[in-house]
């Protein structure tokens, strides 16, 4: 959501054409000079123009009346303006009286009341003084400036727009809408037109610098270039090439202005010059390289851009032969590999895990059977990435070791100093402040209940493991407020709004597919494009995918699209093609962590490190101030990516330190050290971050995907579905079924009339089309009991043939064949009964321990089927022999 602030933030330009004025009294000489020879047009009170110049030095003008003197200077390529107030000067002091001041009070803009003495009010007044037109635009995030003097958003590229900065460079860039930023005497407000998020002030072709005097009197300097050069820009692929790999550089993003054309593209790489809009180049060695592109238009004007390319070392695989035993030192510990004779591949990998430090990550493969043991003098946990299952750790003689096989592994140690506990005093104060914002209708807001504010509050409350039913005002909870207002809000919701609502509804334990009759998941899926993009922006795709993932939907296509728009610096923009910003990168990291896209995630976290300011806090982009929202997003991203935010420091100050520095004694979090803006949202974000919760905080016990089945396809369930349902794998059997829609859900409530007595859990497995059979492999916590799976055929519960496959240290594994899919129930074998029960289901998760990787099972389903057929044939033959024998008798 905050990415739209691109259009309402600002940076200050240094003016290329300056006008200097000495004197401001009636009937006295006023001296005017410029830093470039210029034609001058002078107008008193916007009357008849007087022409002079600075071609031969200073110009002199003697005003005869008081009022405003508008000075316009036109050089060979630029235009600038300045307004000077002409006054009656007294010989012995006196009081200055100015007609052009920034008034007190407010004005109406787009149906909203705006204070004059804001950055936005200053621009409005300056445009009135200069006679410039301007166009405001009302959005979901407030009012921003769309056009000034016919220069509008998008005029100089898709992401160009007006920005502002107050008292640059002595104060950081504001991070709030210009309508909210209060200005004071002696402030300097600079508005400029930015072509990209990292536009340098001196490069901006259009700007207005507004000075406020001691009594809010206004002076304005204007820069308005008339002959603009082209804009150079390019992409390259792959974004992180390996040494020796061909890289394609494409300059089609460059463009010329005012109807002109680009006639030449000049590239400079490693001291070589190449020409063409698209070129191919190969870096022979790893390292960082600068690539410079210069474009020339048909009038000879040119522009250049330089980008840094990181070239990675070509991948290396450690292949070796093991005969007997081989010991390899991995730093954290040693790996002992045993085999009769095998070719083994050992490779360092990159991986990250929440709440853990990764000591090492590696993959181990072999062409023959091997056994391996990892030993260390330190305590550790080991994670098998291939199956998303934890491998057990055994302690022996003061040392720690783990028995592993082939696969990809991460060696981990848990954090000890983060996240915070729900009982922490700072968390309690923040929650108390949030409670003070709750209104009588159950909603939340600074002045009145807002749907968006209530959604964020729900997220924070759930993060703190608080019961939403205990958060009531006048008998109404936050969920009650959402229920009562969803009908009014639904028609106004954009893509990000729908996503935020889904997240809040899921976190509250409600069904987003039927929330007061609205299917928000369907609404959001309708905004998913064929390429996976959700909505029209990068940030809407990120939030849309997080929301759909929380609802159990397959978002792999959206993640692939997101990976395709990652910038070369590793960060992500709010819109495709824009410069990276810290907030959208933080949100993207949370999505990438879910998908275990570690290579892309690593690059994003490297970019995030560039976002930390000297005070330890995180900026939105450019040179903006550290703020609590960016701090919170970054902390959530770091946790998702396996980085302890306590250790994310600059000048020995962590991002957590900075976020805590913004908490007030009342419990809320300020936006920056200078500004209090939307403290409810800032506080909700901070609570989630400090409690170590990243999105999606909770997910429905639902998994959906679409696939093609050729004969037999086996699906391994994600860890969250395995933990919730016990289902490890599903093998689907069909003859060439395309676009098969698959959905598995653990049922909290069973359809009326089909309950089983003593069922452990119920599942719904739905496939479309339905002519598919298969095997269900499931796990139950290891005990002395035996379990079977039962299926509801529409009328009765049918006992499925259930095989015991084996066990590991934590679980017993079973497999059942089913001719079709519908409702299933897991039942203890001795308790199998068709007695109906209306007892509601418990909501406790089925898996209560950390799952472990089972040993591979030697007996396959096909082998079992063959054996069963063989036994059946033998039985038939035996029966025929017996019949023949009796007939002969």
Tell me briefly what this model is:
The protein has 889 residues and is α+β, with helices and mostly antiparallel strands.
Secondary-structure topology with pairs:
Blueprint: E1 19-22, E2 30-34, E3 39-44, E4 50-53, E5 59-61, E6 67-74, E7 79-86, E8 106-109, E9 112-115, H1 119-130, E10 134-139, E11 142-148, E12 151-152, E13 161-166, E14 188-194, E15 206-212, E16 218-224, E17 235-237, E18 246-250, E19 262-269, E20 272-275, E21 278-282, E22 287-297, E23 302-311, E24 318-329, E25 334-348, E26 356-366, E27 371-376, E28 381-384, E29 389-391, E30 394-396, E31 399-404, E32 407-414, H2 425-436, H3 451-463, H4 478-490, H5 495-507, H6 520-525, H7 538-550, H8 556-564, H9 582-595, H10 598-609, H11 628-640, E33 649-650, E34 653-654, H12 655-661, H13 679-690, E35 702-716, H14 719-725, E36 727-746, E37 759-768, E38 773-781, E39 787-792, E40 797-799, E41 802-807, E42 811-818, E43 823-828, H15 861-888
Antiparallel strand pairs: 1-2, 2-5, 3-4, 3-6, 6-7, 7-16, 8-9, 10-11, 11-12, 13-14, 14-15, 15-16, 17-18, 18-21, 19-20, 19-22, 22-23, 24-25, 25-26, 25-27, 26-32, 27-31, 28-29, 28-32, 30-31, 33-34, 35-36, 36-37, 36-38, 37-43, 38-42, 39-40, 39-43, 41-42
Helix pairs in contact: 2-13, 3-4, 3-5, 3-13, 5-7, 7-9, 9-10, 9-11, 11-12, 11-13
